[in-house]
Design a protein that fits this description.
alpha+beta; elongated; single chain; N_methyl_site; transmembrane helix; disordered C terminus; minor pseudopilin epsh fold; 12 strands; 24% strand; five-stranded antiparallel beta sheet
Length: 200
């Protein structure tokens, strides 16, 4: 039977938490942990989707630079290494270079773009909407170098038709980005050409 204390009312000899209180604390902690992990996962996906949008903007700028200045530009992905993050770079073709394997060089007016760890940019040639001479053109400008691009913008604004996909842990992030033979970005899954930065 509980003791009665005049100053504090009824007191109990037992102290501690009930089983229900302990289970309630564990349940709340579990819910909070789940919410935090979902929140962190969502922010990584948002960052990668933002990287995808930046890539689309970069492609539009590369196309305009190639067309306006009559330059041959290419896009080269680099995989993550022990010392470097995954990244991609813009390269420029130098027809005056006597060493054939050094004709593709980093374009100095474009920065190398780092991607988040664990991600990569995958570029595959697209045979859909590709010009008949695409493989011949690629072979003509191919070099034995890490800077050999698969995606090339020729000085007239045309490009090798290609499909670009950002991957995170080998899983696609967002829809693939299609670059048509006219160098335009096809950014949606419905298949219509977008007119990002003009359809010159």
């Amino acid at each position: 039977m509980p003791n009665f204390d005049k100053h504090q009312g009824y007191t109990s000899k037992e102290s501690g938490f009930t089983l229900i209180e302990v289970m309630l604390v564990i349940l709340i902690a579990g819910i909070l942990t789940t919410m935090v992990s979902l929140s962190l996962g969502g922010s990584e996906t948002r960052k990668l989707l933002q990287e995808r949008e930046e890539l689309i903007d970069s492609i539009a700028i590369i196309r305009l630079e190639a067309q306006d200045q009559g330059r041959m530009l290419g896009l080269v992905p680099f995989y993550q290494t022990a010392t470097d993050p995954p990244r991609y770079a813009v390269v420029q073709f130098d027809p005056n270079e006597s060493n054939k394997d050094k004709r593709w060089k980093l374009a100095e007016d474009f920065k190398i773009h780092d991607l988040p760890p664990g991600s990569e940019l995958n570029i595959t040639l697209s045979q859909d909407n590709a010009p008949r001479n695409q493989n011949t053109a690629l072979e003509k400008f191919k070099v034995d170098s890490a800077l050999n691009p698969q995606l090339i913008w020729f000085g007239n604004g045309e490009a090798t038709a290609a499909r670009l996909q950002i991957l995170q842990d080998a899983k696609p992030v967002g829809d693939a980005i299609e670059v048509t033979a006219l160098g335009r970005v096809n950014n949606d899954s419905s298949g219509s050409n977008s007119s990002i930065h003009g359809d010159q």
